[in-house]
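Protein modeling request. Please complete all fields; requests missing the sequence field cannot be processed.
Requester role: graduate student
Desired output: 3D structure, token encoding
Chains: 1
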Amino acid sequence: MHAVTSSATLPRFCLPNFKEEEGMPVTTQELVSFIVAGAPVGTPEDPLLTMQEDLQRALKKQVKDRRWVMALDLRKCVGCSACTIACIVENKLPPGVVYRPVMEEEIGTYPNVTRRFVPRPCMQCDNPPCVPVCPVSATYKRADGVVEVNYDQCIGCRYCVTACPYGARTFDFGEKYTSGAPTQAGIIVGRARVEVYETAAGYEYGRAWERQGQESPIGNVRKCHFCLHRLNAGMLPACVTTCIGRATYFGDANDPDALIGDLIGSANVTRLKEELGTQPKVFYLL
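Delivered output (286 residues):
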């Protein structure tokens, strides 16, 4: 968990064993330390803390020596779509652009049936079919295995959208959530604030992207990139940190001590459409 330096006072009911006479402001990081220190002996460490430690260790290595992978435990996913929403907020995604939808499927035979939820980010394939079809080489695989899109180079032909067998790419038509919304002075309020938010810059790939006119990323193909801008800042992807069931795991597969290595080496692991030879780096635990 990355350090947060806010000194906002937390409500008393947020603090176990809070003493009225203390009344001290508590930072988020101090609260975390307080809770961890007060946990009963033998309490398992939150996997987020483990993955954060793994991330810091991976960032000390050169890019070419890392191999970012993700694991999704479908036994824990409750279909809340918190990851989808977090991704939209983190990357300022407009209508029609979704990096991480959560699919639903019904499994079993009646009357013994159940529903299963399957988050579907970009698979970050080791053999990505989207790369060779791009006529301007705007999409490519980085040294750490993440498939990136160069917005400045993308011409919006959408060949890669067709080539992706996972439906992980969408096109940014420049739409807004407020488009076509009703207006009536003094009765329907708040639209101006929403419009300010919709034109606010996103920071994908570590750069500010203003949504103005037809400037990139408008008119480009967009996709999940494992929140590279967050990784470079020492933070886990937004979908990982917001998963309420701790069903999403992330890390460097080249680190033998990382939590992610144990998970992807499990016997109950599968990957989507492996028969296509794409070698996806997103694993599913069944």
